[in-house]
Amino acid sequence: MPFIRSQHALLIIGIASLVLLTNLGGAKLWDRDEPRNAGCAREMLERSDWVVPWFNDEIRTHKPVLLYWLMMASYSTFGVSEFSARLPSALLAIGTVWLTWWIARRQFNPKVALWSGIILSTFVMFPVVARAATPDSTLIFFTTAAIVAFAHFQSAANRDTGSSFQFPGFRQSLVIYAMMGLAVLAKGPVGLVLPTAVIGLFCLIKRLPSAEIKEREKRVHLKKRHRLLQVMPAFHPRHFLETCWAMRPVTAISIALLIAGPWYAWVGWRTDGLWLMEFFGEHNLGRATRSMEGHGGSPLFYYPVAILVCCFPWSVFTIPTILTTNSTINKRTNDINEGQRDLTILMTCWIAVYVGVFSLAQTKLPSYIAPCYPAIAILMAAYVAQVAEDLPKRVPTRWWTAGLTIGSVGGLAMIVGLAIALRDTFPNEPVAIWLAAIGGIPAIGGAVGLWRRYQRDFRFSTFAYGVAAIAFVVALHGFATQAISERQEYANILPNKLSAGTNNMELACFDRLEPSWVFYSGSAVKHFAKDATPEALSFLARSEHARMIVPRSALSDPNLSAGCVVVDECKYFLRKDQLCLVKAANPIAANPIAANPIAANQDAKRTAERTARKTKDSLE
């Protein structure tokens, strides 16, 4: 048994590594979040400042510091590159896959554990956050660690005491809340609030005596359509408060403050409170109360639809997964033990909290609910493992057939969709054909699975679909993203301060600022708004080493085009425009702004006013 367990662990780590590390540094950093985070870590390393996040010579208040520390360590070891920027996220994601496998093995069985690791690794969205230089993977790891630790300690406590429910002891609680404290250091209050809410909802349900539930059912004559009323007693004020106190809230807050508090206090002191006000006020409260950066969505349908898309190719089995989950919670078969039921309830609470909370928030992004992917994977694995063991009494085969059919059709639809989407990016190029053909992988996997299903070989049917899922995400994230990224041509025209002979180069941009320009130029990029033509020309005119990135469409302004000359240009990625690198047509003397002292003073005054406002819109 230990040998088989070790084999499964190595297999899961190997699959996760294949998916998440293959060609990790092949694609350029994707605007906008990746170059901001990667550039911030590099700037902090260059400044030898491990406290205050900086990007483009401005204080960056978007995220806490833990990811930057991990990136700085990676830079120090491997140098500054796309690979080293993404490596911490990828390694932590592999750890998340292992944690998911570990808790499923302890509470379910080795087959469910094996499938949970495979399914989580091959969700189409999980490698996106796992292979990105963003804090999401860090948050997911420590959130998963906290909930997995609770599930393990709670199960052990109940087994030792023989009681129906027992919250883990004080020492175990320290481990749980320490993981949440690190999550707070990774992304803020959500690292403590949401995992605590998941555990709290589970505790509210489990601490309610089963006899009381039965009595209430008998008293109100509950029918199936009123089954939701079964959990209503869990939210009785007295029961709610007692449960909250049993979860040791003082310990939770104390441990979180002990771990994350020193840095928050230090960065607040170093920035005179500016970092704290903007992070908590704008990037936490603001995102919850209003739509920011155009990321809004329907409160009812956004995240259910997002789950179906982001969990492809396994989301085709959503309906049978729900049915299997309901069957396990209600213990409709004798082979379901209490540990399996408890973990299923906890996973359901995990999904419900994240989907429910972020559905109420006004700013919505698919990545916001990524921390509940391990729960979705375990519930889906419980269904797939039963199909692999050919248990038609518990899992009607029609759902497996329907899922494989949808997977095949979805793959074919992806071929058409990618072909249309890539038409502008790869006009008349053969590479577009094989990129679109990636959708054929799940289509073939579904077709083979259907063929073996009708041969009554369910084990091979699940195996074929699983192999296709692995091949699909490796091809998509390992190679297709690099082929698309090669169309990000801006790096070819940027003057890099690390290149020989350009150490004194000054770089600015007009109208638009992309964070990737800051990262790949290796220096700060001054931004001039569209109405700041005189200031932009003054910047160019003051030095022969000054350069500015300007969209070709902006050069239609005769005042701007008359004062500069195009040095180089390239296609503006995913936009119907060109990017031009320009310099002054005649430095110093030719520019009317630079030659006119009065105009120069007005220019300096306007520039000072813009700096005083600290307009963060240039980075958004």
Question: What would the keywords be for this entry?
Answer:
two-stranded antiparallel sheet, mainly alpha, D-Maltodextrin-Binding Protein, domain 2, disordered C terminus, five-stranded mixed beta sheet, 620 residues
Your description of this structure?
- The protein is mainly α and 620 residues long.
- The chain folds into three domains: 2-395, no CATH class; 399-487; 496-619, D-Maltodextrin-Binding Protein, domain 2, CATH 3.40.190.
- It is built from 26 helices and seven strands.
- A five-stranded mixed β-sheet has the order 4-3-5-7-6. Strands 1-2 form a two-stranded antiparallel ribbon.
- Strand 6 and strand 7 form a beta hairpin.
- Helix 4 packs antiparallel against helix 5 (110-122).
- Residues 220-229, 589-602 and 610-620 have low confidence and may be disordered.
